[in-house]
Amino acid sequence: MSDQPEEAPVGSRWPELLVAAFLLGVALLVIKDSLRVGIGWADDGPRAGYFPFYIGLILAGASGFLLVRQLLHWRARNPAFATRAQLGSVIAVLVPMLVYVALIALIGIYVASALLIGWFMRRHGAYRWRLIAAVSVGVPLFFYFVFERWFLVLLPKGPLEALIGL
Asked: Residue 33: which domain range?
């Protein structure tokens, strides 16, 4: 046994409520946009919004159910969701991933991926710079050749790729 007091966990009420509300919002957005593009049948088959509309309905039903259930049982026992240390670990991964997604739009997927890989290798793995440089440049190069050259699938590029003619 350690002499340190046990850390109080974060309850599951708010995380469950917020995730259910977020998913309900996403579902309503999917339904709205599906209605905009059409959910019926055209001469050549289903319209673009047909399948997303029904997926949105299922997601809205499930998240709405969870939202209502959480509100109805609000005063019931609040089981542990995670400790603050565990949430800190999640945030240590979540924030760089959000920055990565934003950087894809600004500088392209290949440079953003190199930066993300380098960040995680240095911050969470404490690898040496030589290995970080090799892996963080090698992995995006590998995916460039696989997707852009082999499968002919274009991925988002930024100003650096345009500068070197990719």
From this structure: 8-82
